[in-house]
Structure formats: C-alpha cells, structure tokens
Amino acid sequence: MSDELEKPVPPWRYLVARPHRWRRQLSIKGCNMTVGQLVSTVRANKLSPEEASEDLELPLEAIEEALAYYEENRELIQHEASEERRWLAENGIPLTPEDLRR
Description:
mainly alpha, 4 helices
C-alpha cells in the first residue's frame, strides 16, 4: 500500500486512515485490510492475538491495537459491515459461495 494513501492517526501506531467514498474505520498500516476485516478473520478462525500475528504476518502490537480500536469503535465498524452487506445484496452480488459440487 502506498504511503501517500495512508494518513497516520494518533495515538495509533499501526492503524491509518485511507481515502474511501464511505468507509471511515481505520485500516492496518501497510496491509490491505480494515480493522473490521481483521477482527472478522480473527473471530472466524478463532485465533488468539498471537496466532493472528503469526498467521497474518503482522506484529502482535498491531493485532492488539486493532482489537482495542475495534472495542472503541464497534458501532461504526458494525454499521459499515451492515451497509456493505446491504449494497452487495442490492447489486446482486452473492454473500455466500455458490454450490461448489463437481
């Protein structure tokens, strides 16, 4: 990710703001992932912060910071996820994979 598209947001060290039409939540510095996407990945895979750090190849401090940011901004992140699901449904984009039988 280009540094010019990432704006530091004090006091966060590993989280940055990125220009987006409607998304306001922060993203992980140097990684194409929002905090909401990180939290969803951690929860879906039942990862500890240490496991997430290893699996996602991010510093443990970045994972811990993202989790703290999520707790402080849960309503915003959940609202954005809901809006994204609504937009996808309105545009006929499936939210679940098609039947993968061969």
